[in-house]
Amino acid sequence: MDTTxxxxxxxxxxSKFGAEPLLIFSPGRINIIGEHTDYNDGxxxxxxxxxxxxxxxxxxxxxxxxxxxxxxxETIAFELDKLKPSSEGSWENYVFGVIAxxxxxxxxxxxxxxxxxxxxxxxxGMSSSAALENSVVYGxxxxxxLGLTKTEMIFISQKAEHNYVGVNCGIMDQYASMFGxxxxxxxxxxxxxxxxxxxxxxxxxxxxxxxxNVKHSLSDSAYNDRRSACENISALLGIKALRDATETDLLKxxxxxxxxxxxxxxxxxxxxxxxxxxxxxxxxxxxxxLGALIYASHNGLSKQYxxxxxxxxxxxxQAQLNDHVLGARMMGGGFGGCxxxxxxxxxxxxxxxxxxxxxxxKFNKDCSIYSVKLSDGTHVIN
Length: 382
Ligand code: GLA
What we know:
Elements: H1 3-17, E1 22-31, E2 43-44, E3 46-59, E4 65-69, E5 74-78, H2 92-104, E6 112-118, H3 128-143, H4 150-165, H5 172-179, E7 184-189, E8 194-199, E9 205-215, H6 219-237, H7 247-252, H8 259-283, H9 287-304, H10 310-320, E10 325-330, E11 336-344, H11 345-363, E12 368-371, E13 379-380
Parallel strand pairs: 4-6
Antiparallel strand pairs: 1-3, 1-13, 2-7, 3-6, 4-5, 7-8, 9-11, 9-12, 10-11
The protein binds alpha-D-galactopyranose (GLA).
Alpha-D-galactopyranose binds near residues 36, 39, 169, 172 and 332.
């Protein structure tokens, strides 16, 4: 967490609202493997990072609430009993959605002001949206003594995303952001919502992210389409979710689904299996196998699930050309954002330089590179 960011948000809040705020940090996340498996009740392997949202929040005596998105320099006034979704793509939907979902659970909040800012690059696939939702629900829970558990809070954040933002996301992002543990990744079972923490120490290897700086505008509808396709196939199979299916089960209904949707379901079944295998490879300290699973994940996301894009595929190809990169894949929902790369530390600098140069030559734009520090989940900043 960036302390300058914390001080800036605090100063802005005090000068705008004239009160001492409660400060919350809520992180973004990476995901090592297990992509598009969460809404299929499967396994994911995320971790919270040291980049995220800092929110300053305090009760207010005014007739309206105010939310200030510092990075956008936009302030919105609103009334708690008149909430409805704003136009698509508006940041306030994350705030309104969380409040509405709290109200739906028969809990009430009073008027408040909030100001927030973040250092997760937007559209990077590191889940700035879950970080924002979690910061709002966590802050309101503290301020108004709502008595919500962390698990209740992540479901509120998720529902806000479904009902106000319009993305039918799974639970991975909200979970990782809320429950992150410093230096650990979490093997999360998205059905039981139980996670096993794995200490991440790749010794002479490290994880780096390369951001394509691409965000495709159709990604929300494409995401929802994928989710419905998975649910339709589960219904055909007579199971609760694709997590319960094997490749043999799927084969039995092959002629009842389109070839495209067959590949999508097959990808989910295989990816879920890869996430479990990755946890074993990690326990065994077998980074070669982990890397191979990560490359296979990308191949499935690109060719079967079809959520990659040219820029992501290109960066993964660059990684594959380099013997010192054990694995690379697109990360998050897809259609842009980052690749995650498992790289030998002593070859990392050269790889970053080569990948940046090749990317610039190919697409005539820059990629951005981040190193990753695994951090604790949503908390009050003292
Ligand atoms: C987005 C969603 C998550 C998850 C990933 C893909 O980040 O918010 O719930 O489905 O995409 O794994």
